[in-house]
């Protein structure tokens, strides 16, 4: 049984010109211990699809699927109380822009301990001790002192580490990382990716890495889904994707990488002609 099994997922929003499909009939599966990268341009529906899994889309969104199961449990029919038992504990997410995702009005210690007390039933003392362990685990120095810091008192890299600590606090079975290295300098990006991969290996988590960075895909993923305009263009193991891409869109993405430049001008995706499939298959 797949850890996460999604069939024909569609997410649409009402606009002044009618419904807009941000995700249009995609299939996604993730197995235990697998690293899946979802790659595509901004606006391709990568984050929206995962927010649908988390149940975090606004009420104006319409989410439908033939199947959306986590370990055989139907995520589409869960009550709010049933969902709260899973989301944040068994399925967790690292959001884009860590400084914006952390609450500026509360210390990082409070925000960590809130997760532990809510989902793990810890008392205040145990939650504080575990919070220090988590901050140390993700490489925060002077962890005990940092519990009293507010997000604005920490760097972007430190806030990202705090977000990772919050996300793994309950040892989730599935971790979704949405552009986890955005807006970080190259050195910190490498540290964050190494940290995520170490934690994934140590805890045997399924990991979904949402990114537009093909270098991150090559370094981290077992399997890759390529999305374009809400459609799944390709689903392949990482070696096959880079050596023998089947989709014209995937070939366009790879051709636009700086290392693949063959002339004075680097190609862009718009230089290529292709259509999105009608359903979730490859183009």
Automatic annotation (TrEMBL):
Q: What residues does the ABC transporter domain cover?
A: 4-254
- Tell me, in one coarse class, where this protein mainly resides: membrane
Q: How does it sit in the membrane?
A: Peripheral membrane protein
Could you tell me which CDD domains the record lists for this protein?
Answer: ABC_NikE_OppD_transporters
Entry-linked InterPro entries:
AAA+_ATPase (IPR003593), ABC_Ni/Peptide_Import (IPR050388), ABC_transporter-like_ATP-bd (IPR003439), ABC_transporter-like_CS (IPR017871), cNMP-bd_dom (IPR000595), P-loop_NTPase (IPR027417)
Every Cyclic nucleotide-binding domain range: 26-65
Is the keyword Cytoplasm assigned to this protein?
A: no
Q: Which domain of life is it from?
A: Bacteria
UniProt keyword terms in alphabetical order = ATP-binding, Cell membrane, Membrane, Nucleotide-binding, Transport
Compartment(s): Cell inner membrane
Query: Which is one GO molecular function term here?
Result: ATP binding
What does the similarity note say?
Belongs to the ABC transporter superfamily.
Q: What is this protein called?
A: ABC transporter ATP-binding protein
Q: Which organism is it from?
A: Paenochrobactrum glaciei
**From which lineage does this chain's organism come?**
Bacteria, Pseudomonadati, Pseudomonadota, Alphaproteobacteria, Hyphomicrobiales
